[in-house]
Amino acid sequence: MKKIFSGIQPTGDIHLGNYVGAIREWVHLTEEYDCIYCVVDYHAITVEYNIEELARRTIETAFVLIACGLSPEKCKIFVQSHVPEHTELTWIFNCITPIGELERMTQFKDKSRQHRANINMGLMGYPVLQAADILIYKADFVPVGEDQVQHVELSREVARKFNSRYGTIFPEPQVILSMAPRILGVDGQSKMSKTLNNYIGVLEDEKDVWEKLRTAVTDVNRVRRTDKGNPEVCNIYTIHRAFSENKMLLEIDRECRSAGIGCIDCKKMLFENVKKELTPIRERALALQKDTGYVIDVLKKGAQECGAIARKTMDEVRKATGIYIP
Ligand code: TYM
User: Fold this and answer.
1) What whole-number distance in Å separates Cα of residue 108 and Cα of residue 18?
2) In a mutational test of the pocket of ligand 1, which residue from 18, 20, 154, 187 has the highest number of ligand atoms less than 8 Å from its CB?
């Protein structure tokens, strides 16, 4: 069975971007692949974060993953820091990764701009840790949203560099790009993200979801109800593509272009579809919240199983790199 690895940061509420860009796909992949999914807490501390909240958010992220449909029976779920070999392999990879490659990463450039007062080594080395996450399990495929493709490509380069210098240990992992489009935030401008606070949370209650959708930016050139719209540049239509069936998409496309439907009605249709998908997730999450013990056990078991694989890879790596083994 081919291996899948992917991760998500515990930096706050899981939003529609994460859900359609990654998690929904992760669930399907468990049917055909040997899947490992990780809550990447060490990645989350590369920027300013709330010390008191990190542990709670880590657990919360895990239970949202389960609520979204990831079954611990069908995949491994664990917390990155519980398998310390990830950071150990990162060090080895640090020593073969050119700084120039890291400086040109889009996310590094964006985050350096956002966090001018704290451009630290971890922020620059972030994709190296991501490469270690993936390669320590010798994953074949990495399902991610569009924003993470560049990082997975870097993992391929790291694997290639390591293999050519020390002998082949790692496969070059391939991206599985989510079928869903890149979701912008409710501002209609930047990628939906936790840090930009322009998101709709998977667990948000219906009233708040509607309020955010109702006020979300659409095609900015469509000022009046009677103006014709362009679905191609409308983020609400993009989200529709992730939640609505083809028949409805065709109808909206046609009606929007001819000003036959207004933005509010289009948003109401979207809201109904989003609600249909998110309500059962919210209900499962509420039930899991009352059973934290179950989630903690899942993470413990995940870390044990993943730790065993990671230790084996590290043994190979130590041997290949000439590290003294007593
Ligand atoms: P993170 O936590 O930012 O996001 C988790 C997943 O959600 C996708 N995503 C989106 N997709 C579509 N539209 C959006 N607006 C949107 N926002 C987020 C991301 O592409 C991602 O797939 N560096 C990673 C975590 C990571 C990882 C890994 C991933 C660490 N190690 C190893 C894969 C393999 C990150 O910050 O994801």
Assistant:
1) 19
2) 18
